[in-house]
Amino acid sequence: MNESGLPYEVDPVTLETMGLTRLDGAIERGPFHAHVRVREEPEGKRLVTFGAEVKGVDADVIFYEFDDQGNLWSKTSHVIPSGGLGFYHDMVVTENYYGIIENPTRFDVWKMVTEMTFGKCSLAECISFDRSKSTKVHLIPRPGKAAATKPPCCAEIPACFTFHHINAYEIPGTDKVVFDTVMLPEISFSTNLTNLAPEYYENGKSRSDYRRIVIDLPRQTATVSPPFAGRAIEFPSVAPHVVGSSHRSTYCGASAIVDPDHRAWGPNQAWARIDLDPLAGVDGPIRSNQVKVDAWVAEPNSFVMEPIFVPKSTSSSSPSSSETDGYVVGILHNADTKKAELCVLDAGNMAAGPLCRIRLPHHIPSNLHGSWVPECLPLPTIRGEDDAPVTPGQVHIVNRIRT
Predict the structure, then answer these.
(1) Counting CB atoms within 10 angstroms of each CB, which of 145, 277, 351, 395 has the fewest?
(2) Distance (Å, whole) CA 109 – CA 131
(3) In 42-199, where do the E strands start and end?
(4) CB-CB contact of 96 with 145 (8 Å)
(5) What is the enclosing helix (H) or strand (E) of 109?
(6) Domain boundaries, the chain
(7) Is the pLDDT of residue 70 over 70?
(8) pLDDT tens digits, one per residue of 122-171
(9) Closest by alpha carbon to 293, among 278, 264, 272?
(10) Which residues pair with 342 in a beta bridge?
């Protein structure tokens, strides 16, 4: 999936790309974005996602809900006036609301005509951060829920930029919603590996930090916490059973550098679990005793990708209620060997490092997102260096995988 077109269907066993799909007619118009949330509902699991289409200067955002059999449950359209360039990359869902953030950007038509037309820049480089605008947090009522007849909420916060959100939930007995996200003070789409300088990691302007937004629904206002985790973070996730509900633990990639002033940072070279009191920041500032960071820093010249939380118990009859009773699985790139490792850590003791490291005989291109599927799928045939099929449990060196 990307953010300008339809999703691709992939064979779950062979990973063969089958082609574009409209999900049995569920997608009638507009793009279909790559981020999804799976929330436990009384009726069963619900997969929630969205797509945002530019309509003139407005954004037409469509939210989709599918049941655990892939059937379309609901589809909700919401127009954001003058929000066409909001750069909606991710979303959250709570018991009663969908949530997205409208980023403050503008499109440089002159740059598109004079540079992009002649191959001197990409389309993304024609989009720039606009500090003169506010960032807007939108909460849209879900159909069939208790808040379905209530008006949407749009709360403004100081200019910032977000790609990935952590989770959101409603505070019982109040009209407040907690929206946890990864926030950057600003962004430049012209930054790439060929023009990075040390200053990029020193001035804090593009540093991504864990931030908590608390929205007051009736007043349509919001407060934003300052950074509090010490490390820059990205690619966050929570335990599957707390998606859209109150959570304490967030798993993420993190910088090796810890800076209390939240200015210096670096690329993701650590995996971390950040524990934050669910009520922290709701009625006052976040206190240091409400935050705990448990991190493992990889070796020098090693870089980590998105961590995935895997519950130890996936049984529906005995699910685990603990957010740390599981494993964290992620891919590490070793720049010295130019090869990848699949690492498994104890979610409750990240600092202890990997319980298991599977060293692959090749590299894996840097990836963004993944997910854990508890069901066991049929495996393709694995062949060793001698081209003979490998017996399960046999020690071998993988040469290639054939389907």
Answers:
(1) 395
(2) 18
(3) 44-55, 58-67, 72-80, 92-93, 97-102, 105-107, 127-129, 135-141, 153-157, 161-170, 176-184
(4) yes
(5) helix 109-114
(6) 1-84, 85-298, 379-403
(7) yes
(8) 888 888 999 999 999 999 999 999 999 999 999 999 999 999 999 999 99
(9) 272
(10) 331, 358
